[in-house]
Amino acid sequence: MLKETYQKETAPKLKGEIGKGNIYAVPRVVKIVVNIGVGKEKGEKEVLGRAREELAMIAGQTPSFRLAKKAIASFGIRRGDIVGLAVTLRGRKMWDFLEKLIRVVLPRTRDFKGISRKSFDGHGNLTIGIVEHTAFPEIDPHKVEKIRGLEVTVATSANKDDEAYRVLKELGMPFKD
């Protein structure tokens, strides 16, 4: 279990390396947000329903629709249109998803060479783009009508990218070095 690995091995090791006086000050994974953009399919209820089912199977939790905050005429988007689906994972579901991502999904991704350190946002959060959602074991590639890309954001309590990198690297995240 990845959570137990963090609590028993990673946190005590990083406590000394990072120079934190308290085990609770060591950066940790706070939440994971998984989202899918729907693009031109925003008005098709059947397609949105299938996308919602697939994201629910991947995340283990029902996603919510994300609405456009403002109108963009060049994209044909009006304020309030559905532009995507998102799900926020915390607790046990978050740890289970992270373990599945590290040990199953990323190794199954075609032409995967590791995650770039440039994928951090400057505040200790890592965002990974996955080109094909069929890399997840819950999705049967023979029953999928359309291959979708999705985005996974791993939010940590770290303020610096280096600290977040060290935590995720210790947990087994495959970075390019």
TrEMBL record:
Signal peptide: none annotated. Keywords: Ribonucleoprotein, Ribosomal protein, RNA-binding, rRNA-binding, tRNA-binding. One of its GO terms (cellular component) is ribonucleoprotein complex. The keyword Ribonucleoprotein applies. One of its GO terms (molecular function) is rRNA binding. Residues 83-175 form the Large ribosomal subunit protein uL5 C-terminal domain. The keyword Lyase does not apply. InterPro entries: Ribosomal_uL5, Ribosomal_uL5_bac-type, Ribosomal_uL5_C, Ribosomal_uL5_dom_sf, Ribosomal_uL5_N. One of its GO terms (biological process) is translation. Gene3D superfamilies: 3.30.1440.10. Residues 22-78 form the Large ribosomal subunit protein uL5 N-terminal domain. Part of the 50S ribosomal subunit; part of the 5S rRNA/L5/L18/L25 subcomplex. Contacts the 5S rRNA and the P site tRNA. Forms a bridge to the 30S subunit in the 70S ribosome. This is 1 of the proteins that bind and probably mediate the attachment of the 5S RNA into the large ribosomal subunit, where it forms part of the central protuberance. In the 70S ribosome it contacts protein S13 of the 30S subunit (bridge B1b), connecting the 2 subunits; this bridge is implicated in subunit movement. Contacts the P site tRNA; the 5S rRNA and some of its associated proteins might help stabilize positioning of ribosome-bound tRNAs. Belongs to the universal ribosomal protein uL5 family. This is Large ribosomal subunit protein uL5. The gene is rplE.
